[in-house]
Amino acid sequence: MFVxxxxxxxxxxxxxxxxxxxxxxxxxxxFLSGLTGGLEHRNIAALDTLGGTSAVVSGTGDPxxxxxxxxxxxxxxxxxxxxxxxxxxxxxxxxxxxxSVAAVSGDRPEVPSPAxxxxxxxxxxxxxxxxxTGDSVDLWxxxxxxxxxSGDDWYSHQPLMWANGAEWAAQPQAAGQGAATTVxxxxxxxxxxxxxxxxxxxxxxxxPETMSAYKAENTTLTTINWMLxxxxxxxxxxxxxxxxxQRIPDIATLKALGATTAxxxxxxxxxxxxxxxxxxxVGLAITVAAATAIGSGLPFVLxxxxxxxxxxxxxxxGLAGAGAAMMFIRSASPLSALGGAR
Length: 342
Hints:
cell membrane; 10 strands; ABC3_permease_C; alpha+beta; membrane; 18% strand
């Protein structure tokens, strides 16, 4: 790294420019990654809370949670296969705050299951609507008592309220929307196949993929993220390619003085690594600081998966881009430094 460090010191302007560029790309990637995670959480956090092994939705062929409407007969047939939770998703308001409502029934203890006349609200709803345990809220034309606050649960980008499934089934709108949207069971998918006619069984982990809004949103943001990472590799590769081409006479001279091709390649990659580490580190630090300052103002998830993982990918792709310039180091001839004719 002797030559690489000396070049970093002597050409401060050039390397500052590429470092700032890498930092901006890293900022974009890490911030968008955290935003993607936050939007995903606010879209399907309720499904994560429901957990389970398998999920059953109505219809055959291409499953859709958006269109699913299970009857009581179908729910009863599935219930015979073991512990289950039926959940009917609907929308309501608490004051002026729009909320999603998950009416649940079943015998899986890990799922919030309020008694008749009660609801359990998520921490986000409790904060935004100023609700505490013991308060009353209007739901389905009646008044329900808030029995507790449980988890940061969201569904379809709205804070969630857990309600009693039997009370939902008694509502007039349940006749058109079904007694449940889906049934979550702990039994394996093959055990539930054919349990209820006119239904489709999917893995519980794949249930979000049956939501059209989730697929469109997640696919778009993920694609943008990967495109930004590819841009980082191209920008880094282009810079070091141009830089290496400009240094070919110096590289040839070093070879004529006895430097090996391998050592010069290691030196160049080490130089790129320093630039990438500083640039990615600065971008990541700005993202963490901004996310901390914003707090819950944006749907942002700050985890290793949204910060460290993108940073590692950026480093790897950046080094791969810089590696494209190594062919010029390999092809530089020491004879050119000696006049070429001797």
